[in-house]
Amino acid sequence: MDRRQSQVCLQVTDSLNFGIDRILNTNSNLDRSTNKKKEKCTGRAVFTVTQKNWLEYYFQMEKYITKQNRKILASSLGLTDLQVKVWFQNRRMKWRHTTAATHLRK
Predict the structure, then answer these.
(1) Nearest alpha-carbon partner for 74 in 58, 61, 95, 92
(2) H-type helices in 1-106, by residue range?
(3) For residue 1, what are the CA distances in angstroms to 13, 19, 29, 50, 83?
(4) pLDDT band at 10 (very low <50, low <70, confident <90, very high)
(5) Do the Cβ atoms of 58 and 73 come closer than 8 Å?
(6) Alpha-carbon span 96 to 12, nearest angstrom
(7) Residue 7 to residues 1, 11, 12, 16, 55: CA-CA distances in angstroms?
């Protein structure tokens, strides 16, 4: 192999490595962005007795809360909109399970 051919081979190899490096860097950037999403998760919310009582009170009135009422309830209880939303979802599931279990017993 003469000198010109070896230089061309090096250039081709460099461009291939660049492509692979770029893909690897892109994947590592994606991993970093998914790690940031995981870091945002604060874990399990612990509600105070007062918050639980108010949430239960509103749940007894309506099983499904509107977005506007959810925002108002969240701000008045010092919770996030998402916490109230998830609490209602979980409470509806608990309600369905207890209702279904009651019907099976009869």
Answers:
(1) 58
(2) 3-40, 49-61, 67-77, 81-105
(3) 16, 25, 40, 82, 69
(4) low
(5) yes
(6) 64
(7) 10, 6, 9, 14, 72
| Structure confidence at residue 25 as a pLDDT band (50, 70, 90) | low
CB 84 within 8 A of CB 74: yes
- Both tokens of 89, joined, read 């979802």
Higher-pLDDT residue of 31 and 104 is 104
What the block records as the tokens of 21 is 């490096």
Q: Give the mean pLDDT of 46-58.
A: 95
Which residue is associated with the tokens 């309830």? 73
Burial 10-49 (b: 16+ CB within 10 A, else e): eeeeeeeeeeeeeeeeeeeeeeeeeeeeeeeeeeeeeeee
pTM metric for this prediction: 0.58
